[in-house]
Write a structure and sequence with these properties.
alpha+beta; Arc Repressor Mutant, subunit A; three-stranded antiparallel sheet; 3 strands; 16% strand; elongated; WH-like_DNA-bd_sf; WH_DNA-bd_sf; Metal_resp_DNA-bind_regulator
């Protein structure tokens, strides 16, 4: 099973996008590349996953955008809003709790 086809990745794109954009604004393709780089190529989302997510996060007020033309190319840069920061904190807490629970179960099986 390829890493990106795992059902455990549900919600991961949003978590990673918000986390990366917390540090600095980026445009869509730059986000795709940053996820690949930060994960050592373990996680790779296509633009077809990231762009709809960016648009949804913007509609929900978690992201804001600005358009800039660089070398004749117009790019939309995304940055996190205060609402997006709150959403990131909630998502990160959920994932950390899930990770701790799974790690505990894997470390020492419990018997009923």
């Amino acid at each position: 099973m390829a890493p990106n086809s795992s059902p455990f990745l549900n919600g991961v794109p949003e978590l990673l996008v918000l986390r990366l954009l917390r540090d600095r604004e980026m445009y869509g393709y730059e986000i795709v590349q940053a996820i690949r780089g930060a994960s050592g190529e373990t996680i790779s989302f296509a633009e077809g996953v990231i762009y709809p997510l960016l648009h949804a996060l913007e509609r929900d007020g978690a992201l804001t955008t600005r358009r800039q033309t660089i070398n004749g190319r117009s790019r939309v840069y995304y940055s996190v809003t205060p609402a997006g920061t709150g959403r990131l904190q909630a998502l990160a807490e959920q994932w950390q709790n899930l990770n701790q629970t799974i790690a505990a179960i894997l470390a020492e099986p419990r018997h009923a």
